[in-house]
Amino acid sequence: PADVETLGRSSWTLLHSIAATYPKTPTPSEQSDIKSFMRLFAKLYPCWTCAADFQQYIKKEDVRAGSRDEFGNWLCDAHNEVNKKLGKPTFDCSKWEERWRTGWKD
Ligand code: FAD
């Protein structure tokens, strides 16, 4: 349905933007905050079937948050998992920062 797609696009924009501004060298407290945030996000995400699968994913693939690069790539992998499930093309994760932080060149 359209609202699940609109919600999804907005949510990925929020999540990847958070990754783009996540510190390059996060403190232990910042690492613990982002992990708690992702777990709660997955729990409260208002598309229940999406939320159930995303919670399972986080259980299997623990949030990596040791640096901006690590978290950005973890999130890109998580997004690709959903892309695969929905039959969408996967995204080249070497380009996540160009897409979400520095901006495309063109
Ligand atoms: P989106 O997937 O919303 O992506 C937006 C933009 O992000 C793309 O245009 C591209 O530029 C960029 N992008 C794409 N892949 C990546 C990546 N791997 N890393 C970085 N950037 C990328 N929908 C369902 O129908 N069923 C579900 O179970 C489901 N689960 C979801 C779980 C979560 C946590 C979230 C946030 C969304 C979920 N969605 C689900 C929604 C779905 O992922 C899409 O957001 C929605 O289908 C709209 O897709 P889209 O083609 O506009 O692009």
Task: Reconstruct the topology from this structure.
Layout: H1 2-21, H2 28-44, H3 48-60, H4 68-85, H5 96-102
The chain binds flavin-adenine dinucleotide.
Flavin-adenine dinucleotide binds at residues 4-5, 8-9, 11-12, 16, 45, 49-50, 53-54, 76, 79-80, 82-83, 86, 88, 91, 96, 99.
Number of domains: 1
- CATH topology, by name, is Four Helix Bundle (Hemerythrin (Met), subunit A)
- Secondary-structure element order, as H and E? HHHHH
CATH architecture: Up-down Bundle
| CATH class value | Mainly Alpha
Name every ligand kind in the structure: flavin-adenine dinucleotide
Parts with pLDDT < 50 across at least 5 consecutive residues: none
Number of strands: 0
State the major sheet.
none
CATH superfamily: ERV/ALR sulfhydryl oxidase domain
Strand content: under 5%
Distance between the termini: 32 Å
Please bin the fraction of helical residues: over 70%
Q: Label the overall shape.
A: globular
- Radius of gyration using CA atoms only: 14 Å
| Mean pLDDT over the full residue set | 94
The number of distinct helices, counting runs of at least 4 residues, comes to 5
Decide which structural class fits the backbone: mainly alpha
How would you characterize this protein structure?
The protein is mostly helical. It has a single domain (7-101), classed as ERV/ALR sulfhydryl oxidase domain (Four Helix Bundle (Hemerythrin (Met), subunit A), Up-down Bundle), CATH 1.20.120.310. It has five helices and no strands. Helix 1 (2-21) runs antiparallel to helix 4, helix 1 (2-21) crosses helix 5 and helix 2 runs antiparallel to helix 3 (48-60). The N and C termini lie far apart (32 Å). Flavin-adenine dinucleotide is lined by residues 4-5, 8-9, 11-12, 16, 45, 49-50, 53-54, 76, 79-80, 82-83, 86, 88, 91, 96, 99.
